Amino acid sequence: MPPRHSYILFDPEKCTGCGTCEMVCSQRNTAKIAPSSASIQVIRDEDLGKNFAILCQHCRRPLCLEACPTRAIEKGDDGIVRINKLFCVECGLCTMACPEAAPLRDQKTRGINKCDLCDGDPLCVKHCPEKALTFTRGKAFRWIKGLRWSVQLVSFLLLVMILVGTFCYFTAGAVTLACPAGVLQNVASSKTIVLVGVSAALALLILTALAGRLFCGWVCPFGFILDLVGTIIPKKIGWPSFLKSRMTKYGVLVGAVGASSVLGYQAFCTICPIGSLCRSYGVQGVFRGAELAIVPAIASLEVAERRSWCRYFCPVGAVLGIMANARLINIVIGAKQCKKFSCTQCAEVCPVGVIDKDLLREGVSPIIPMTECIMCMRCIDRCPYGAAKINVRWRKGVPGIPEETRL
Amino acid sequence: MKAQEKRISDVKRFAGVYRCVECGKCVAVCPMSDMYVNFSIAMSPRGIIKKAIVGENVVGDENIWYCTECNAGTDVCPQGVSCRDLIHGLREIAMDDMIPANMKQCIVCHKPFVAVPVEHFVFARLSAEAPNVIRVLELCPSCRRERYMERNA
Fold first, then answer.
1. What pTM value is reported for the model?
2. ipTM reported for the complex, 2 dp
3. What is the C-alpha separation between A37 and B9, in angstroms, rounded?
4. Is residue A108 within 8 angstroms of chain B, CB to CB?
5. What are the pLDDT digits (tens) for A298-312?
6. With an 8 Å Cβ cutoff, are A101 and B144 in contact?
7. What pLDDT sits at residue A368?
8. What is A7-136's CATH number, 3.30.1390.10, 3.90.550.10, 3.30.70.20, 1.10.10.10?
9. Which of B117, B99, B105 is nearest to B58 (CA)?
């Protein structure tokens, strides 16, 4: 089990720039009160009346550790990045490599000080009079996460276990629902358009246009299997770059429709992992053999990248992605609200990898393509500063700002 | 020219190079031996101190630009010679007198903040591990903090 990511959160709205954190920190470092030898630094802008604290984020992959020529910096089992003073030669290369410039050079003694979280009980957090600093161990359970897993479990049970042969096509009274990719193939193979089938496919398409690819992240039974496998398989090895084209899935869709028009039956549906999952459990028997072999085969692609099937190959996702271009709801990661350059936890947890780390480090809000985003809301759940949000297109005007000043 | 020689002799005296006994303890702990493949006696602190003692032109020497200005050699010296102060002083003279200086400048404040060979070393280490984050090396640490402040405030 990897160590918990523990770090200190800083709120610039509450900070008054009093410097108490610097004083208590320097007292722990050198047994005397000298703010220059502290491991936290408050920079103050007197004209604007704004303050900001420079402090170590204890990165998951620390760059200071890479740059250190004597290998004096190490990340412990508890997730805390420490400088081993026995080997440190105070060259200052860690200060250069750190995106936050957080290892601080003492201007008097020329030493290097870096936060070690006081071994798990930070003094600066304890003594901050305005509670601008808070210590977090990285919450293990958040409510969107729990909600998503339970919705996925319930829909998996509904689609696979209880309602036989569902998602692909099922009827319950007047309500008819169908897989849009399956309906496309059906139309191509039979050369006739059945209105009931088209209207059944429209239900899912309209949902996607309204709320993004919610189906992929929250409902899809195969996505649920992939998420489960992803929590078990630890390491990602990465794809070769020539395979990493997100256009591949549109090619798969066109190929599937073309093949079914030639062959006369729904070509892709016979090997579709979602479909074979849905058909595997029913009155004919439980987990029928050869067809279901595609599920572990594709689930093993998770070793390369999370949700690699959904990213590059899934034709159902391709149909939904075209509809999601309406962008009535989109995910926004506001660089103004993001408080740390080097955090990028949203990019780390994103299962389809659409968040641009480099833009975030530059301080620019990345544009998230809604054709790729599966609306799992992991980024919203994970962001400690509330910078990742859902933006609704039809909301008129931002409160407090007149309509004319907006673009 | 006279003023420059005066400054160089001041730097030498301040660093205490004339007390050096050439024991080589500073070379043993110097991180440059791990950092550069072409580490040699001319680049080592002992070699540069020796050059300074015999009065060669150390300011124009390219070997003074490899040092990281760390504290290791000064810590272990039995005679109290500070190779860091020597290198630091020599670099300042070189930058003031327009002798071709090998320092990387910050793209915002245009102040030199790190020697180019040291920057190459950090670049190589980081590009092996994290190829997308080496842009931070273009800014000096203080400018990075200022930009950080601008962005977040």
1. 0.69
2. 0.85
3. 32
4. no
5. 888 877 788 888 888
6. yes
7. 85
8. 3.30.70.20
9. B99
